[in-house]
Amino acid sequence: MRVPGRVLALLAAVSILCTACGCLGASSPPPSGGGITSIDLPEPEGYTLNEALAELDMLRVEGGLNITGTSMHQVLGNRVTLDGRAATWAIGLEDGEEARWLTSGVTGWRETSLRAPLPDAEVNMTEILSPEDLLAAQEDAIRPAMTRLDASTVDIMLAEGVYTITIRSNTGVEVLAFRADNGEVIV
Asked: Fewer CB within 10 Å: C terminus or N terminus of the chain?
């Protein structure tokens, strides 16, 4: 069906007129104390690595993420509190010859595209301390650095049998290393 040009012009004029009238008409007065009201919600509580891995296992069982046949080679924790709760966790998995990265945060686990090589050694969580156990055992070594740097959280990297704890703030960065199997300080 062919629409004559005058009909299209009339429809365009009516649309413009309706839009302009809606914008130019008398507006209601703004609410008292108006403007944008900020809603300050507390940041969601993080997960320990064990809790995050349990959620990942449940996803695997339900068919949400296929990680069958993969092996964990690296763990990263971002904004980790001294009780071992992180804002986000990332794990590097080896899937045959391919490296895969999964991240967990407020929205749960998802696969992330990251072109980062994985360490050679596999991480076996049953043979090492969990991040929360390491942080509890080494709190006396970690807390003073956090106090010096005025930091409330740390970043954790687990690879090749070593936990690397990075404490950072606007005033500086400090890095501590611990054996993953017994928590002993590495100098």
From this structure: N
Buried-state track 120-146, b at ≥16 Cβ within 10 A, e below 16:
eeebeeeebbbbbebbeebeeebeebb
Sign of CA dihedral 140, 141, 142, 146: positive
Query: And the tokens for 111?
Result: 């696969």
What does the alpha-carbon distance between residue 70 and residue 81 come to, in Å, rounded to a whole number? 28
* Structure tokens given for 155: 């970043």
Predicted local confidence at residue 14, as pLDDT = 56
Q: The pTM is what?
A: 0.75
Q: Are 116 and 99 in contact (CB under 8 A)?
A: yes
The C-alpha atoms of residue 139 and residue 113 are separated, in whole angstroms, by 34
Structure tokens at 69: 């046949």
Alpha carbon 27 to its chain's center: 43
The CA-atom distances, in angstroms, between 131 and each of 2, 23, 108, 172 are 70, 57, 19, 23
DSSP string, 13-62: HHHHHHHHHHHHSPPPPPPTT-SPPP--PPPPP-B-HHHHHHHHHHHHHH
Q: Are strands 154-159 and 108-112 parallel, antiparallel or unpaired?
A: unpaired
From residue 175, alpha-carbon distances to 8, 21, 81, 118 in Å are 68, 63, 16, 21
pLDDT above 60: residue 26: no
For CA atoms 88, 129, 67, 117, the dihedral sign is: positive
